[in-house]
Amino acid sequence: MSEPSDDPVIRCHVVAPTADDLRAFVDEVQPDVGCRPVVRRSGDGLGIDLYLQRSRLDAARGARSAGAVTIEEVEDVTANWQSRRQEVGRGDRFAARGAVPRGLGRKE
Predict the structure, then answer these.
(1) Over 1-69, what HEC string results?
(2) Which listed residue, 14, 44, 76, 107, has the most CB atoms within 10 A of its CB?
(3) Is 70 helix (H, G, I), strand (E, B) or coil?
(4) Average pLDDT over residues 30-49
(5) In this prediction, what percent of the chain has a pLDDT beyond 70?
(6) How far is CA 34 from the centre of its chain?
């Protein structure tokens, strides 16, 4: 997800009454759900945190599947988003035989 500095990245909490409704919204809108998306019970449904640029958030509210979900803006994460992206390396971190991966991600 590349974002110009004038299009902030917003963390949102999206709640749907069913998993199918939530899945339909995510499939249609194609938000960034982070490395390991987690769906949890939230109020009367299922919720997930996701990230969208402001311009895409406005479009997501108009999506066909948006009628079945509640979208709550949680915070503007633009500054953190951009600083964390600087930590992401370039190229194949497994290219050198025996190389230990570095950078963001879960080391297992």
Answers:
(1) CCCCCCCCEEEEEEEECCHHHHHHHHHHHCCECCCCCCCEEECCEEEEEEEEEHHHHHHHHCCHHHHHC
(2) 14
(3) strand
(4) 90
(5) 75
(6) 5
Under 8 Å between Cβ of 53 and 10 = yes
Cβ proximity of 22 and 38 under 8 Å: no
Interhelix angle 54-61/19-29, nearest 10 degrees: 130
In terms of CATH, what superfamily is 9-85?
ACT domain (3.30.70.260)
Q: What's the pTM value of the predicted model, to 2 decimals?
A: 0.71
Per-residue pLDDT reduced to its tens digit, 54-68: 999 989 999 999 999
CA distance linking residue 51 with residue 13, whole number of Å: 9
The mean pLDDT value for 49-78 works out to 93
Looking at residue 43, its pLDDT comes to: 81
Which among 51, 38, 48 is positioned nearest to 84, based on CA atoms? 51
